[in-house]
């Protein structure tokens, strides 16, 4: 393979994949565009996913544990109160003694209350929270899929769509990983409308955007309970997930769409131990009657009303432009070439939102390859690229997710519904923290990773001369590895 072919292969792995790993340059070969497209033909499944609970099962598991914790706490409090009553001294008839006894009892009662609360807490804590282990198992599986991929283009697409349609583990930890598997991964290479329907109807999204009890003012529940409408879910779908900001919809459209979506909720886990946590449509919450959204009337009286609006939002020209812009910004440049965006948007419109074809259009366009590797990787991409270069394929999810959090991109914990940003300005101030992570990682793997081997074999010597020189002059292998990981060859794509 010529040096120019190796250079293009390395660019392919950085810009569109997860970074070079042992054997990946050979996997790209002399036809990088063909290799990227070929990867999209492989099933986007996780081999060990069968061992993980569904999102509904995970939700029920945590709800059941919380119920047991509450019951144990109440039992402990009740037992403590019984013991305190049995040990309480008899009241004195002497006034002075009675006053002293009363004051002593007040202090004793305070101490007893504290002791009862401590006993309740200890009883509850004896039942571990299953949400954290589930989250870590999901994180491990997801990360190791990225480490093992030949190129990682398909995995990058999963990561992109998961961030575009983000939920937060801070709100719904037990479901965050399963949501990505069930709604995003299963539809990332299909049609946008199917992906949109899957994510918006997923209980994790309904929970995250506080939609579970949104009810129409004239619905049965709304009249009986005097509760209100939550516009948040509808607004985020239009502004973040489909049309984009300032694309012609009004506040009236948001309110109408929010009414359309009333009734979308989940089965309470306590009410149904078999189906708790699953999506359901509750007509008691749904605003009756037709609604007008973006000038079109929707007369359905069930969940199909919301699905019909989602289908039309998916087909809207503004959605095509919004999606194409975000994809091109993520993979190619903070300010993507307008011609590339238009090519991708046209494919989106012409294929009715075929996301695989949109991705193929992107990597087939010369505009996606012309720019130098100057885009700063997000922390998650950089960390995975660093680990991939060493050939490591298994990770400790506690350490890995801790590193992600330190770098400001905690896994499945974006700061807002718009997800993590994709521009350099948002991440450049955190590059200093990457040095700490690089040093720590280099220290751990010093005995198993050789920086010269990474340069010559994994990167096929396609790194800047200054980097080779700095690595060669390093005072220790740990320092050499850290310098290599912090170089632009690792940081940018």
Structural account:
This protein is an all-alpha fold and 493 residues long. Strand 3 and strand 4 (296-298) form a beta hairpin. Strands 1-2 form a two-stranded antiparallel sheet. It folds into 3 domains: 55-125; 191-332 and 335-372, no CATH class; 374-491, no CATH class. The longest helix is centred in the N-terminal third of the chain and has 33 residues, at 55-87. It contains 24 helices and 4 strands.
What is the beta-strand fraction? under 5%
N→C terminal distance: 21 Å
State the strand order across the main sheet.
1-2
Helix-and-strand structural type = mainly alpha
Quick structural gist:
The chain is mainly α and about 500 residues long.
Features:
DUF1800 family protein; mainly alpha; 493 residues; flat; two-stranded antiparallel ribbon; DUF1800
């Amino acid at each position: 393979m010529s040096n120019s072919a190796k250079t293009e292969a390395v660019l392919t792995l950085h810009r569109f994949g997860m970074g070079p790993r042992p054997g990946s340059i050979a996997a790209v070969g002399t036809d990088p565009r063909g290799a990227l497209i070929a990867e999209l033909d492989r099933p986007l499944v996780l081999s060990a996913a069968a061992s993980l609970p569904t999102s509904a099962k995970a939700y029920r598991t945590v709800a059941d544990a919380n119920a047991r914790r509450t019951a144990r706490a109440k039992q402990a409090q009740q037992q403590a109160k019984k013991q305190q009553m049995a040990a309480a001294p008899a009241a004195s008839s002497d006034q002075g003694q009675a006053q002293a006894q009363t004051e002593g009892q007040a202090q004793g009662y305070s101490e007893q209350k504290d002791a009862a609360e401590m006993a309740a807490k200890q009883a509850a804590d004896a039942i571990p929270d299953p949400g954290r282990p589930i989250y870590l198992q999901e994180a491990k599986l997801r990360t190791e899929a990225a480490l093992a991929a030949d190129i990682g283009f398909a995995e990058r697409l999963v990561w992109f769509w998961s961030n575009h349609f983000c939920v937060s583990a801070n709100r719904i930890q037990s479901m965050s990983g399963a949501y990505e598997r069930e709604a995003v991964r299963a539809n990332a290479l299909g049609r946008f409308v199917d992906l949109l329907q899957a994510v918006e109807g997923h209980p994790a999204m309904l929970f995250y955007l506080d939609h579970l009890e949104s009810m129409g003012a004239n619905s049965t529940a709304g009249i009986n309970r005097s509760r209100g409408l939550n516009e948040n879910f509808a607004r985020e779908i239009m502004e973040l997930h489909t049309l984009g900001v300032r694309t012609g919809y009004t506040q009236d459209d948001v309110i109408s769409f929010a009414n359309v979506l009333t009734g979308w909720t989940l089965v309470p886990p306590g009410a149904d131990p078999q189906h708790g946590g699953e999506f359901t449509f509750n007509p008691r919450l749904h605003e009756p009657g037709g609604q007008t959204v973006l000038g079109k009337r929707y007369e359905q009286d069930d969940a199909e009303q919301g699905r019909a609006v989602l289908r039309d939002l998916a087909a809207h020209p503004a959605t095509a432009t919004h999606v194409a812009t975000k994809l091109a910004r993520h993979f190619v440049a903070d300010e993507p070439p307008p011609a590339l965006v238009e090519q991708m948007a046209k494919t989106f419109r012409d294929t009715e939102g075929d996301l695989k074809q949109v991705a193929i259009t992107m990597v087939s366009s010369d505009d996606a390859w012309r720019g130098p590797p100057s885009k700063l990787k997000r922390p998650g991409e950089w960390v995975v690229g660093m680990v991939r270069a060493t050939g490591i394929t298994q990770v400790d999810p506690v350490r890995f997710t801790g590193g992600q959090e330190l770098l400001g991109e905690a896994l499945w914990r974006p700061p807002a519904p718009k997800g993590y940003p994709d521009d350099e300005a948002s991440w450049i101030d955190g590059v200093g923290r990457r040095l700490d992570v690089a040093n720590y990682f280099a220290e751990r793997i010093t005995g198993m990773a050789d920086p010269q081997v990474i340069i010559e074999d994994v990167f096929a010597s396609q790194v800047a001369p200054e980097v080779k020189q700095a690595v060669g002059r390093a005072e220790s292998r740990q320092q050499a590895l850290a310098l290599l990981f912090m170089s632009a060859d690792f940081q940018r794509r």
